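This week, think about what follows.
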Amino acid sequence: MVSSVPADTVPDSATDNTAAVIRAFFITLLFSLVLTLHAQALSALQMRRPIQF
């Protein structure tokens, strides 16, 4: 019983860690993609209709 508990918890924590790393990578990738598209949309809007202060 006691020897099977660490064997059960180690692969779970390893897979949770891998899933967290993959999730963080995809969130960062999606965030950078959204920022890039947002910057391109802003520059396109400013070129089409320049903002006058």
Observations:
- The chain has a mean pLDDT of 78.
- Helices lie at 4-48.
- Residues 1-48 form one domain.
